[in-house]
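Table S5 (text form). Sequence records supplied for joint modeling of the two-component complex.
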Amino acid sequence: MASTSTPVYDSAAPRRPIFDETRSLWSHRSLIRLLVGRDLTVRYKRSVLGVWWTLLNPLLTAAVMWLVFSQIFRRSSEDVPFIVYMLSGILLIATFFAQGVLAAGSSLMSSAGILSKLRVPGEVFAFTAAIAAMVNFAIGMVPLLLIMVLTGTPIPWTVVLTPIPAFAMLGLVTGVGMLIASAAVHFYDVLDFVRVILQLAIWLVPTFYPMDIIPEQFQIIVKLNPLYSYLQVFRGFVYRGEFAPSWNFIYMFGSAVIFLAAGVWIFSKSWRAMVVKL
Amino acid sequence: MAYQMARNRATTAKEYAINMLKRQVVYDELWALNDVTFDVKRGEVLGVIGANGAGKSTLMKVLAGVLHPTAGRVQVRGSLSPMIEVSGGMNNELTGRENIVMVGTLLGRPPKEMNNRIDAIGEWAGLTDFLGVPLRGYSTGMKARLGFAIATDVKPDVLLIDEVLSVGDEEFKGRSLKRIEYLMDGGTSVVMVSHALPMIEKLCEKAMWLDHGFVKATGPSQDVVVAYKASVKK
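The corresponding structure-token record, covering 512 residues in total, follows.
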């Protein structure tokens, strides 16, 4: 039994945004592990295709894209088979970013049952969704590497550095996800908007198509998109065997930190108003 | 505790933008609870009664830390097990076993510990044969038994019960009362909401009558129940 002199719950306790969230995520790590594990078992255990299931949707899209684009562009703009180029883009942007942001954004609404009855910090659910997306991404690396081997593409040593853009992406997904989750509690159509915008985002960076089909003057628009930098860093490590230019790294880490900080901050400040609506 | 009720509630972003332009975003405040002040000492049992909509569930949610009080302060000293609604945090897609671990973790007990308690909890709830079945296949009574078993498995310092006991059959009611009494003997404080006035009189020393968010009466449970019944008869 706890000693009676230490309040365990005090509604008037001072709150420090970001600090409180970080601490609560750490103290709830076994819950996060449990939830992520449950998400994975549901996804993989009961399906025949297993690992390939997560990639099925993007793989089908990739197959269609490949049929269309490889007829127009006989040769990909790099010394890599087009399929590898596309899969790497799909894995990072469609699977990790898009699915992650959507899952994190809807995490509060999906867990409304729990959040309206038990005192559980909401950031646990948003973060769990982001982690689950990262784990799916990691699992998806296996078929990607496999296809590289099958197509005779050499795998450079830099591939072990892929956790770097992966963790940056985790920060970005968590931050953006929390922003969306905060809005989604108040307005029911936010998630629909987000789905559409994410589709757009997948097309605004060279996920499927080579960069050089974009006219020079518009390339700057693509480069302004932080996701472009993530792609460059990731592809650099996975098959180019090189470090992307420093501005990509700065942009990548910078956007991750900014969105993460903004997301957690807004989430923290609006939590009390949110919970009432769940 | 105040809820903000928009007079013409915009539930989509499009509507909200339009309303803002038309300067029609007006909020009324619905004070679900007003000046509700009380304390519950260790081992005390407080009953909360009142008509539907009086604010009892809101009170429980504020005590559980789910809702943050608009004004005022809540202090809970010790571990707290809330039972707000039968399904208290359980997920229909998971099996009984998985739910035991999950709710236990949500209540602050690590999965390792919960794994050892699965059998004991299942046995007390009388659901040993059903632990491998997804919760979807459980009846309301079964869910109540499981939820109650999980929440009372460890000896919480504070137990909150929101109208959960009315769902089970006689046998369950008997066993859950026994468990509550066992916890009370061990020093657990209990706050319980119920419409079953005889049970409130029997179990609770103190009772509080909530009416439209205000405390109409508090005191020895017998007196409060009498006062409440009298007002209903009118």
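Note: Chain B touches chain A through 46 residues (CB under 8 Å).
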